UniProtKB/TrEMBL annotation:
Gene3D superfamilies (UniProt xref): Cytochrome P450
InterPro entries: Cyt_P450, Cyt_P450_B, Cyt_P450_sf
The name this protein goes by in its record: Cytochrome P450
One Pfam family named in its UniProt record: p450
Family of the protein in this entry: Belongs to the cytochrome P450 family.
Species of the source: Streptomyces sp. 900105755
Top-level taxon: Bacteria
Length: 417
């Protein structure tokens, strides 16, 4: 009788996922995991297995299918609870999912996203000035994540949602706690409660003074037809939009800058025109996905994926960072950052923005923001480089998000550089 694999315990404190991913992939595309608090689950890591799983009709997002939660075995302060219980697109199935997605999809059509390009460029240039000033005040060194990679997507999604600037820093702090996997139960409960309170205040402000923003449009839908969007779904949708609307792009920009600074030959290829900034974005999404393990999906019946049975009701993580470097899909050099990597057919493209019905609605916006940001950043500061070694960068305190906490850079060329 074959010995079952030892469950993988993702580190709640985060850390670079790639070495562990390689070890796990070597033994199979699916692995049992033990989540914080001893909660048993599974992770799908292999590219083809994950692609199949993400679009499988027997896989649900609604937490009523989460057996341990339904049976009362998940504590209130569990750090991953919000991912399961928030009311919105990412926890809805079928007609409910289509209804909620339709309410926000008009803000993310290719035409609407392209209309944002001038504003994104304007905001990018302002933030590059801020980065330059921060470096001048810091002996030539500034935190690119804090001064550039964060405020750009946070500002864009804030404007789209009609979130006043006074709320944005607090919302980032709170959403950062929501995606943390090492947070204590009392802190998790408090952060979720405050996040809901802040977004309720945002919604109340937009209800009193509606504008040309997505929150106002959602409130109008709620007020016109409560069956179309309830108050809990309104707040849940705002929670998801704030988190997905800036955390993913923040990590994408940060990871792309790290990759280019660590692979100057690849940056030179872009400068010579042998690759595009869009190529940089796609290769970064594959090579260092902004989300490592995304919670949760649940089989509605026992499901066999790549020869492994996942019992019904099991919470399953989507292993995006592992799938991005799966040699079975991306070749024996899958762990190499290569902006000239040939375009792959749809079946072999990276899955870092999801797949199937729950494919990331904001993917075109994330790609646009990252492309504009990287091009203008390296045009302005062609000699930009990290000031510490890659392995000395402190990682995010999460196995959900995949990036670093700070990115100290020198945006001005050194003397003679």
């Amino acid at each position: 009788m074959e010995t079952p694999p030892v469950p993988y315990r993702p580190d709640p404190a985060g850390g670079c996922p790639h070495a562990a991913n390689a070890r796990l992939l070597a033994r199979g595309a699916v692995t049992p995991v033990v989540l914080p608090g001893g909660v048993e689950g599974m992770a799908v890591l292999g590219h083809e297995a994950l692609r199949e799983f993400l679009q499988h009709p027997g896989v649900a997002k609604d937490a009523r299918h989460f057996t341990q939660l339904r049976e009362g075995r998940i504590p209130t302060g569990w750090p991953l609870l919000t991912f399961a219980t928030v009311r919105g697109m990412t926890t809805a199935d079928g007609a409910d999912h289509r209804r909620l997605r339709a309410l926000v999809s008009r803000a993310f059509t290719p035409r609407r996203v392209e209309e944002l390009r001038p504003r994104i460029a304007e905001l990018t240039d302002t933030l590059l000035d801020d980065l330059d000033r921060a470096a001048a005040d810091g002996d030539g060194v500034a935190d690119l994540r804090r001064h550039f990679a964060l405020p750009l997507p946070l500002g864009v999604i804030g404007e789209l949602l009609g979130v006043d600037a006074e709320f944005r820093d607090r919302l980032h702090h709170l959403t950062n706690q929501v995606v943390a996997t090492d947070i204590r139960p009392a802190e998790a409960v408090a952060a979720n409660r405050e996040l809901v309170g802040v977004l309720a205040a945002v919604a109340a402000a937009r209800a009193e003074h509606p504008g040309d923003d997505l929150t106002s449009a959602l409130i109008a839908a709620r007020d016109e037809d409560g069956d179309r969007l309830g108050q809990e779904e309104l707040i849940g949708t705002l929670v998801l939009m704030i988190i997905a609307g800036h955390e993913t792009t923040l990590n994408l920009i940060t990871n792309a800058v790290r990759a280019l600074c660590g692979h100057r030959d690849q940056l030179e290829l872009v400068r010579k025109g042998d690759a595009s900034w869009a190529d940089v974005v796609e290769e970064t999404l594959r090579w260092d996905a902004p989300v490592s393990y995304f919670p949760f999906r649940y089989p509605v019946r026992d499901l066999t994926v790549d020869g492994t049975v996942i019992p019904a009701g099991t919470p399953v993580l989507a292993g995006y960072s592992a799938a991005g470097r799966d040699p079975a899909a991306h070749g024996p050099d899958a762990d190499r950052f290569d902006v000239t990597r040939p375009a792959r057919p749809d079946a072999a493209r990276h899955l870092s923005l999801g797949h199937g019905a729950h494919y990331c609605l904001g993917a075109p916006l994330a790609r646009l923001e990252a492309t504009v940001a990287l091009q203008r950043l390296f045009d302005r500061f062609p000699a930009l480089d990290l000031t510490v070694a890659e392995d000395q960068l402190a990682r995010q305190a999460s196995f959900v998000g995949n990036s670093v906490r700070a990115l100290p850079v020198r945006p001005r060329p050194r003397p003679g550089g």
